[in-house]
Specification:
The chain has helices at residues 5-12, 29-41, 44-67, 72-82, 85-99, 102-112, 115-131, 134-150, 153-165, 167-188, 196-204, 207-226, 231-242, 244-280. The chain is an all-alpha fold. It has one domain.
């Protein structure tokens, strides 16, 4: 069963806005408290609320596309259960506490707990909300194509930002992994009969298509989000991203959101399989 490319992107929800280390540490109570403060400054709760809204919308799409719109109230309740706010937020907060030391957390707070840091977060959230509108999304993608062709200076800087934070590769990998876990859920529920290697091959056969779609969405989102920033302000953001603290923060956020979405993707696949099985009875 081939997972549609748009499904792969929906499963990960477009992680780029707050994501950009791989050393795992045991968090002390002090570090955990600092991590919670950082999560509050980063407005992780607002991001989770946004992702839950996207999850509910995606649940409607799954119901229409895979269940013929027959899921009803039970399906909606199951979607709400899967996109559990506390569970989602805990995964991200835990990643910050486990993967960042106190110095990295302090340096991250020093950047984001400022007028510029808070303005950047506001712009990212607003852009993500706007991109939920398909018309806005298409305009953003068209703007990306136009600026790419023109070699616009801001496009060049956004490319640098993406490369510094490995945003494209991380998002593509996250989308494909989410698709794989969704398919595993389908298989466990009896909706597909494929070996692990077959599922892996099927998912990764979509890499080029997923990469193209992710690149267009990512650039469109970042162009929309950071357009209001002056060159100096955007340069300051890039400089922070290049620091050890910026790199470790982004890696920790990716780890936390990836873990969260892999669990969600598997649960969605299993739920779809069970719903299909019930409808066949």
């Amino acid at each position: 069963m081939r997972i549609p490319m748009q499904l792969a992107r929906m499963l990960t929800g477009g992680l780029a806005g707050v994501l950009v280390g791989l050393i795992v540490t045991i968090a002390s109570p002090v570090a955990a408290s600092q991590a919670d403060r950082l999560a509050d400054i980063l407005r992780i709760g607002e991001v989770i609320d946004l992702m839950r809204d996207e999850g509910r919308a995606f649940g409607i799409e799954l119901n229409n596309d895979m269940l013929g719109g027959q899921g009803g109230a039970i399906w909606a309740a199951q979607i709400d259960r899967i996109y559990d706010r506390d569970v989602m937020e805990t995964a991200v907060r835990r990643a910050l506490a486990d993967r960042m030391d106190s110095d990295d957390i302090a340096r991250s707070i020093a950047f984001y707990d400022t007028p510029l840091g808070q303005r950047i977060l506001t712009l990212e959230t607003s852009a993500r909300q706007a991109m939920a509108d398909s018309t806005v999304e298409e305009i953003a993608r068209a703007t990306y194509r136009e600026l790419k062709q023109e070699g616009d200076p801001r496009f060049v800087e956004i490319t640098r930002f993406i490369e510094i934070n490995d945003l494209l590769e991380r998002n593509v990998t996250g989308a494909l992994n989410a698709s794989y876990h969704f398919m595993r859920g389908l298989a466990e529920g009896g909706s597909v009969t494929m070996s692990e290697s077959e599922m892996t091959a099927d998912v990764w056969s979509q890499e080029d298509e997923t990469r193209s779609d992710t690149e267009s969405w990512l650039y469109g989102f970042l162009i929309l989000a950071y357009g209001p920033l002056s060159d100096d302000d955007f340069d300051a953001y890039i400089v922070f991203s290049e620091t050890d603290a910026g790199q470790i923060l982004n890696a920790a956020l990716f780890d936390g959101f990836d873990e969260m979405y892999l669990d969600i993707s598997h649960a969605l696949g299993l739920m779809v399989a069970r719903a299909l099985e019930t409808s066949d009875l």
